């Protein structure tokens, strides 16, 4: 994991300040965790698992999880 983070951030970009580096690291970790497939979820990403559960049983959900997807809202 450390190698993945270094190759995606520090070795690829130049940061003018420490705050820029921290913000980019936060964004990278969020994207990495959001898109990672997990064995405990039978190979699904956390978002795919939530959507699958929502389609099977929508009663426990207050808001449609499709509307909660991170990223640009265009």
Tally the structural domains. Answer: 2
Distance from first to last alpha carbon: 32 Å
> How many DSSP-defined strands?
0
- SSE-based structural type: mainly alpha
Q: Compute the gyration radius: what is it?
A: 16 Å
Number of helices: 3
Low-confidence stretches: none
Biggest sheet statistics: none
* Proportion of residues in extended strands: under 5%
Return the string of H and E elements: HHH
Question: Helix amount, in percent?
Answer: 40-55%
| Overall mean pLDDT | 84
Tell me, briefly, the overall form. elongated
Question: Brief description of this entry?
Answer:
The protein is an all-alpha fold and 74 residues long.
Question: How would you describe the overall organization of this protein?
Answer:
With 74 residues, the chain is an all-alpha fold. The mean pLDDT is 84. It folds into 2 domains: 1-35; 38-74, no CATH class. The chain is built from 3 helices and no strands.
């Amino acid at each position: 994991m450390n190698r993945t983070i270094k190759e995606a951030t520090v070795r690829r970009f130049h940061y003018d300040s420490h705050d820029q580096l921290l913000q980019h690291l936060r964004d990278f970790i969020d994207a990495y965790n959001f898109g990672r497939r997990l064995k405990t979820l039978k190979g699904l990403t956390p978002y795919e698992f939530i959507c699958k559960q929502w389609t099977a049983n929508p009663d426990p959900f207050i808001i449609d999880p499709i509307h909660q997807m991170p990223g640009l809202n265009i």
